[in-house]
Amino acid sequence: MADRAILERNQLVVFALGTFHAAVLIVALVLVLYAAGGLASLLSGLTTIAGLALFSALWLTTVWSTHRTLRGAFTVAPWTSVPLGIMIPRAAWRGGVNGVAFLACLGLILAISSAFNGDVGVVGFGALIFATVGAAFAFVLGLALGLLFACVDLALVTATRAILDNENSRP
Questions:
Q1: Which residue of 57, 102, 147, 161 has the fewest C-beta atoms within 10 A of its own C-beta?
Q2: Is residue 56 within 8 Å of 109, Cβ to Cβ?
Q3: pLDDT at residue 86 greater than cutoff 90
């Protein structure tokens, strides 16, 4: 029974951190596009269904990547958790894989959206760029963001453990 409670708690932590990562990525993207002046033109050309599909793809790949990264990281005793030397490279790798997975979803969603709009010629050229330069760029960007989010996650988990280990903070 205790193992099931720990498993459910760990799944909740992974879900919360993955959702936090997706939300931060969306906010950062909106801020960058707004500062560059491209937000209005992007939103005017994006349908509600395509926008929802893009957010869902980002959220799903990010939560999946967070789950794969944090496997074994949260145990009852902190000294039995995954060592930092394993966690950081795992976070970098999973971040890169997340970047490429989201790029693949992005390409698929945009190809379907373009096909419905009648812009099929753009899809072929876009697929070529997505498959080559885009994948390498997405992996490197995802790797850097994976490292950044791993540091944030470890800081949050450390702070939470410090609060929960404090006798005064217990009910």
A1: 161
A2: no
A3: no
Please state the separation of Cα 17 from the chain's center in Å.
9
Number of domains comprising the chain: 1
Among candidates 24, 98, 25, which has minimal Cα distance to 60? 98
Both tokens of 27, joined, read: 């906010």
DSSP assignments along 131-167, one per residue: IIIIHHHHHHHHHHHHHHHHHHHHHHHHHHHHHHHSG
**pLDDT reported for residue 165:** 73
pLDDT digits (tens, 9 = 90+) for 6-27: 667 678 888 988 999 999 999 9
Alpha carbons within 13 A on the beta-carbon side of 20: 15
Which residue, 160, 66, 56, is CA-closest to 108? 56
Assigned token pair, 136:
């390498």
- Write out the residue range of the structural domain in which residue 15 sits: 2-169
Instruction: Give the distance from CA 145 to its chain's centroid.
Output: 9
The pair of three-digit structure tokens given for residue 156, joined into one six-digit string:
């949050």
pTM over 0.70: yes
pLDDT at 169 over 60: no
Q: How far apart are alpha carbons 49 and 138 in whole angstroms?
A: 24
Q: What is the pLDDT of residue 57?
A: 95
